[in-house]
Amino acid sequence: MDLAYIIGMAIALGVLVLGVFAGGVSPMALFDLASVFITFGGAAATVIMQNPMAISMKVPTVFQIVLREPVISAKEKILQIVSFAEKARRDGLLALEDDMDQLDDKFLKKALQLVVDGTDPEIVRKVMEIEIGSLEARHAENRGWWDSVSTMGPAFGMLGTLIGLVGMLSNLGGDAQSLGKAMAAALITTLYGSFLANVISIPIANKLRIRTSKEVQIKQILLEGTLSIQSGDNPRIVLEKLVSYLDPAERAAVVENQAD
User: Fold this and answer.
1) Nearest-CA neighbor of 59 among 158, 168, 148, 133?
2) pLDDT of 114-144, one tens digit each?
3) Which of 38, 71, 93, 168 could cross-link to 182 by cystine, CB 3.0-4.6 Å?
4) Where are the domains of the chain?
């Protein structure tokens, strides 16, 4: 479970609730069924319209990625690559075939298979970079759904505000109760649109962007490590090359672990 997301969402909702009570506003005054339909229903409908149905069907699965903390660490992958480099340097590239059968990482397995098969290094790089590009494109499609929500939410909030203003203006000569209700609906839809964008969709999209960046970084580490193995680099050089992708604190941890 991603504690950062859970804690951040809890704080955001808590602050909003406290702000409502501190301002002396009744919680029920912030609920308007018509505004819910206009803002949330309208945003959902248009987002589904502008995205392939397959992307919309995957929304629950993608949201689970946001809630889960990544289990793959760059540190573990670097140490794994260095161990492969030591074995290849000692016993030859073909000795890696036994390890490949036990690999769960399809990207690394494919890269090592190309290397063991004697594929030209430039071809190995191009093939695996295409894999990385395809991954980024798939993730961008899934993230784009939430980016669309962050656009459509405020847009329908504003649309609801305009509908409320029309109702308010049409009742200027009527009773004050109808006028107040129309004004409340006009303001609440803007509130809902802002909430949908800033508390829900934008954080999810940014979290997915970070997930993609981290996964791409790990795959780049695997690719560079595999190419270093193919070129017969000293395992120590392989380690120094790969830890360059990490921040200083992580580098020190990996080097210490390798020394042990």
Assistant:
1) 148
2) 998 889 999 999 999 999 999 999 999 999 9
3) 168
4) 1-30, 31-75+121-259
